[in-house]
User: Fold Glutamate racemase from Anaerosacchariphilus hominis.
Amino acid sequence: MSNLREAPIGVFDSGIGGLTVVREIMRQIPQERIVYFGDTARVPYGSKSGNTIIRYSCQDARFLKTRGVKAIVVACNTASAYALDALQKEMDVPVIGVVKPGARVAARESTGGNIGVICTAATAGSHIYRKYIQSLRPEAKVFEKACPLFVPLVEEGWRKDPVTRIVAERYLQEMKDRRVDTLILGCTHYPLLRSTVGEIMGDHVTLVNPAYETAIELKELLKRENLENQGDSKIDENPYEFFVSDEAERFRAFADSILPVDITTARRIPIEEY
Amino acid sequence: MSNLREAPIGVFDSGIGGLTVVREIMRQIPQERIVYFGDTARVPYGSKSGNTIIRYSCQDARFLKTRGVKAIVVACNTASAYALDALQKEMDVPVIGVVKPGARVAARESTGGNIGVICTAATAGSHIYRKYIQSLRPEAKVFEKACPLFVPLVEEGWRKDPVTRIVAERYLQEMKDRRVDTLILGCTHYPLLRSTVGEIMGDHVTLVNPAYETAIELKELLKRENLENQGDSKIDENPYEFFVSDEAERFRAFADSILPVDITTARRIPIEEY
Assistant:
């Protein structure tokens, strides 16, 4: 058991967006080791079909399992929307996604039950946020909106740019018209656009970042299952390991701009073989 | 030999952009049958590394080979930039890409030898257009510029939109500053933005669409190799076949907006197995 407590947490995402979840885990439970896998060769998942998302997500989790992880975090809304059930069935370690933690806090904290979700086309098509929020708060109204240009705009480095502002105004108009009181940033890239989205929606709208809520849920899960690392990961030489499916340079540059630690190594692995 | 003459032409692309090449082939050599494969599960290639692009492209071509094609057209600038040599080595049928036909006409027709290329990040990074143009016209100046937002803007359906116009103006400013006289639309999605690009660059700049030049080169190749279909493909019940690696609905909708024929069927195949 002590061995398992010292095992790392596995985190995967379709690419680099999941690093916003890693950032929250590092902040909230700094004593834990992390193994991250980003499927940078097959990114994005948000425009793919459910079956393909499930197939790819299971390969991602199987790879993490080979690294001896004690729990798996699906740090991608699209993969959480489609693959969480399949992963929980296949894996013999706890698996949590980002959708339920985000949905739960929105259902609890929405003042008027008018909740918006901005996300990928695949996540919107799954209606998973609506289903889960309404299972907790049946009278809630949930509006899901795909914003396909947000990810490429973030990846182009145009986080604070007039173009991004215009695109965001157009995508968010429907949310303003519907007078949502709470807006879920339902894609792991979107917290990087938080200030633009916040300015457009206004102070009276609560923005929910599922990455933050997921780190809290992970912390509680580890406690409940007696899986908390009792030591200090920082004495470990390499507490954070990063793997990708395409070459690592671009990943490293982006990771360095998001994470509070240096990504000294990121290794490519052949994900199709898992 | 008569059998081979009646065999279809294989065309592949990372996704849907290659349909602009199919459209030109249909126009210029309507008697030929076509088998198209779009790697919609793994799209885009333009942000991936060279090695991954080669691996995926070889799988795409191997699949086409199982359909009995007599020649293969790499209808993707990124795949042409990285994988053409590997494909020509591996395949026992002629393989042509879109880069050389586009580069050749630009080198020949540029009035002042000042040539711009707009393309994906991977194509720009390969400098293949510059190398090939300068091999034909050593004094030419070639400026390559990645425009990563063009593909998502086209796929969002914002072909003629103020946002696309602003983004295009920003991307193209460098080309205007350098006073290019010829601009290659070096990604198969970009002909769909032709009118916006043309308006910004002005009438004095020649726009080169490699899809058009590739269809001409294909026609000449078939003639030279005695591979022309002597019959009429239109009497065939199903002269055009479409395959994809992800589910087919979205592909079908986009294809219907580009091609002059109805895409009645598009089938999903497991491309990782080729």
Summary: The beta strands of chain A are 9-13, 34-38, 71-74, 95-97, 114-119, 141-146, 182-185, 206-208, 240-244, 266-268. Chain A has two domains: 2-97+212-273, 100-210. Chain A has twelve helices and ten strands. The CA atoms of residues 54 and 191 of chain A lie 24 Å apart.
